[in-house]
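User: Hello, can you help with two protein structures?

Assistant: Certainly.
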Amino acid sequence: MSAAAALALLLDRSIARIAESAADAALFDRQEIVRQAGIWDNNALPLIGVMLSRPAFVRERRAAAALRWMAAAGPGRRAWMSEQAGSSLVGVLGPPPKAVLHFRDYRGHVQSGAVPLSLPVVEDYDLTGAEVVAVRVERAGSSLQAQISFIAARRFAVPSGHAEAVLTLTLADVWVVELDNRSLTGLSVAVSDSGVEIGVGDRGRLRAASGTVRVEDDAWHLSQAGRAADAVTPQRVLQHEEPKALRPQRFSAGWEAGLILREAMLEIRGLRSAANVGRLPVAELQTALAGAGTGLCLVAAQPRRVRDRAFRELAESWFAECPILRHRTARHLPPDHWLHWPAEASAAGRRVMDRSAAGQSAANRSAASRSAASRSAAERSVAELGPAGCLPRRARLTLARYSVNGGRRGSAVVNFVDSENGALRAMEADAVGRFVLNAGAFAGPHPVLGVVGKSISLGDVLVVG
C-alpha cells in the first residue's frame, strides 16, 4: 500500500469507527468519537495537499511526511495508525521512539504523565484529607469508564506561591459505582491482581479492572516520584511543525474540500462537552463523510480541467446528507463564495463564476442576503436538535458528571437514552445539592422523575437535584 493510499484509508477507518461508536445509543462511546474526530482537525488539509501533489514520487514523499506528522501526536496515535494500515507504515514511520512516561514543561521541570496506579505517585500526597472536585462515569461501548479529580495536600516541602495540586484518576472497565456527594472528603487507593478499588469518603467506592493517575502540580518535580522521574526523563524537545508545503492553495476547490472535512470533524469533536450529546448532528455527519478518503483520492486523480467541478460535486453530496455543514463551513468564507448560495442554485452558480465586475457588487449583496437566510435556517435546525422540553417516562443512563462549584452545591450533566424513542439526550443542572450514583443506572431503563434543568432521578440509582 502506498503512503498516500494509507492516508485515505485512515480517514475512512476513522469515519467508520465514529459510526460504529455512535450506532447504538445505549452503547454510545463519546470519548472514542472525540478521539477519532480529533485526528483530523489538523490533518484534513495536509491530506488534500498530498492528494493533489504531482508527480507520483512527490506525492509519496509528502504522504510520508504527513503520516509522520500525524504519528507525532503520541504513542497511542501511532499504535492506532499501525493497527489500521498494517505493515505498510513500518518503513514510513520508522522504529517507534522510546516510551517516556513523563515530560518537561517550558521551564525544563519534569511533569507527570498519566501513569498506572501501581506506580508510587499518589504516595507523595495526603489522600486522607483529599477533596473531590469532579467525578464522571460514562458508558464506553460495552463497559464503563470513570474519572475522579481531587485536591490533595502535598507530603513534601515546597516554597510558597504554588497552586494546589490536583490529581485525576481514570478508571477503565468499571463494574462498581457507589457515589454520594455528602461523602466526598478522603480517598483510598488499593491496587491488586484483581483490579483497582477507590474509596471515596466513608460510603463511596469505585471498582475497576485498571486505572491511571495524572498529577497537575507545578511543584511535582520536588516530590519523591518527581525526583525519580527527573533522572530518566529526556530534555524537552520542541514539537514538530506541520509541513506547510502540504496545504493546498487557499480558496482552491481542494482547499475548500479540506476545510469542509475539518469543520465536520470539529463539529463532531464538540462532543468533548457532554452537554452537547444529542444536540450535534453526529449521525448525519458520519453518514455524509462515509468513504470520504476514497472519494477524495478519486477526485484528486482526475485531470485538472474537471477536478474543481468534481471537488465541488463531492462537497454538495456531503451537504445533501448534512445541510448544517454548509453553514458551518461558509462562515469562514467571503460573502460571494459559492457556499453561501442556496443549495439548489449552487450547480448553476458554478457555471457563471466569471461574472463581470459591473455586476459583482449586486451579486455580492444578493449572496449576503441569501447567506443570512440560510444561516437562520441552519441555526433553527441546530435548535431543533436540542432535547425536548420535558423528561421521558423511562430512561437508561449513559453519562453522569458532577462538579463541585464551592460551598455545598455543585453542577451536573447527565446523558441518557429515552426509552420511548431511543434518542440520546443531555440535561444540565446548576445549584445541585444532592448527587447519588450507582452503576445500576447504566444497566437498564428506569422510571424518571424530575424537572428539566433542575433535577432528575432514575429510580434510586441516580439522584440529581
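That covers the first. Now for the second protein you mentioned:
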Amino acid sequence: MADEKYSLIALLFADRATRAEGGKANLHGVFQALISEEYPAQHENMAVFFKFTVPRGTSSVPVRLKITRPNGAKEWIPQLNIPVADRFAEGILNIQGFLFYEKGDHVFSLYVEDNCIAKYIIEANIGTPIRSPEDDYIH
C-alpha cells in the first residue's frame, strides 16, 4: 500500500483538531468507531489529521481522501494542495456533517498524487451512543 516516495507518519480521525501557537496540531477525541441507535447517523464535525514525508525538493503535493462505504460505494473528497516544509506534508481536513448511512466498516484511504499511502477504518455499530458532557458528538 505505501509508496516509497512517501512515508506515512500519522493518519488519525478526531472530533476536533486545532493548531497551537507554535503550529503544533492538537487532536481532541481521536476515534475509530461510531455507535448510534440508528442509521443514517451524522457526525457533526470530523477532523482528519495526516502527516507524511515527501522527496527532497517538493514544494507541495496533491492530497485526496477516498471513502469506501460498507456497501462498496466510493466517494472522493475534493483534492487539496498541501504545502511542504522540511520534507514534511501535514494537514487537517475538517469534514462537516458526515453521514454514516449504514453500520459496518467505512474505509478512508489517503491518496497523494495517485498513490494510496494509508487507510483508516471507522467501524459504525448499533448501540447507545456515548456523549461527552462538553461536546455533542456521537462516539
